[in-house]
Amino acid sequence: xxxxxxxxxxxxxxxxxxxxxxxxxxxxxxxxxxxxxxxxxxxxxxxxxxxxxxxxxxxxxxxxxxxxxxxxxxxxxxxxxxxxxxxxxxxxxxxxxxxxxxxxxxxxxxxxxxxxxxxxxxxxxxxxxxxxxxxxxxxxxxxxxxxxxxxxxxxxxxxxxxxxxxxxxxxxxxxxxxxxxxxxxxxx
Length: 188
What we know:
The radius of gyration is 20 Å and the shape is globular. The chain has a 5-stranded mixed beta sheet, covered by helices on one side. The protein is an alpha/beta fold. Helices cover 27% and strands 22% of the residues. The protein folds into 2 domains: 5-130, Aspartate Aminotransferase, domain 2, CATH 3.40.640.10; 133-183. α2 (64-67) links the parallel β3 and β4. The model is unreliable at 1-13 (pLDDT under 50). The protein has helices spanning 33-47, 64-67, 132-163, and strands at 5-8, 23-24, 53-57, 80-86, 98-102, 114-118, 121-125, 166-169, 180-183. It contains 3 helices and 9 strands, in the order ββαβαββββαββ. The longest helix is centred in the C-terminal third of the chain and has 32 residues, at 132-163.
């Protein structure tokens, strides 16, 4: 990968001049990755600058494929070259672990490849550890888990709200299965 990246994890509008040193990072809410991809394809065509997108899917990267499968934010977009997700958030993995996935082998920086000697043979490795859940659950299983988490989050929010003791922060239309709340009252 080159030096210039656009990191998309929040709705952003890119107005700044874009060059080979461009880096845009943001967090919190879903990004308009489709719009950013379109902009970067136009920049590539007009100025011969191929700036890849890295999608920081630390929270939503394990939710979107299963709850919003038609939403394009991933390798279906031309400029998306890498995506990271956190296994310990919604990936059902206990250790604090994340994964970084690349579109093509040529996008994988060589300094991320480990060379290990095992039984007298040296192999290059860039492994996906703690990935047994992928095999065990598959797409259907993860979809069920994410739908259940979303239902549970909405039920929890409704129960907190109806208790009168808590103020639920948010619109109730959140796309991640989480609930933010505080004590009710003027000072919370």
